[in-house]
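Please, structure for the following, as tokens.
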Amino acid sequence: MQWTMDSNSNGSEMDALEAKNVQHSHHSDSQFHNPSGPISRYSISSEAPIRASLEFNMEDLLRYPLDQAPYEVDHAASDSSTESDSKKRAEMDSQCMLVCCQIASELESYIHADIKSLRIILDIAKKGSDRVNDAMTLQQGSQTPRCMAMFVVVLYQIIQILESGCSCLSDLANQKSTVSTQINGMVPGLSLGGFGMEPEEQVFYRSQLVRKAIQQVSELLLKMKKLSGIGESGSNMNANTPEEREKCFADLESRLKKLINMVSANK
């Protein structure tokens, strides 16, 4: 009787335990098959896709690297900028050459005309110097040898015109002296008072005008010497030494000094 009760008790306990295990098994299966439910940490099949996705071949990776475009420096902008600067430089050089050729042609026509009027000579020299100065501004960045050669030609022409003016100044001084002596002998006591100008004063005034024109040419020569020290690329480096460049303008400087001496002798 007691054994039967114990047997029934043990049976009930085993039935309860078995029911609990079955319930736990259904609960685990529902968690595994439910996509929205949590995955059991004891499930081996859940790690299979992750492990498979991490498998790769190192040789294939090295043989076929990631498709990334190499970094390339775009030289199109810099090349176009350099080409544009070169084109502008060539246009300015051509413009400078055309201006210098026109100035040289006009000055040569005046030299050929052999003008004897000091006023006209000084006006020609001043206008020619001003135009050459404007042309030199086109060569400030970098100088071109053919433009520099034209500057030298024009300066030689202006100096020759001024030399002709100094000759006119000497002749004018001699004529004024002779005429003044004759007039003073014929009409004594006749004068214009403070408003008159003696022949010597006229010669001095005109000599000052000539000296001013010579000074303007000297400044152009100094400016041209500075330009000769600038290379064609715009740098301050040049193959010639300063002594060699000075020799190129030695004759121009010598003729300017002679002009100054001629003007000083006519005072």
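Residues 77 and 134 are 33 Å apart (CA to CA). Residues 89-183+197-265 form one domain.
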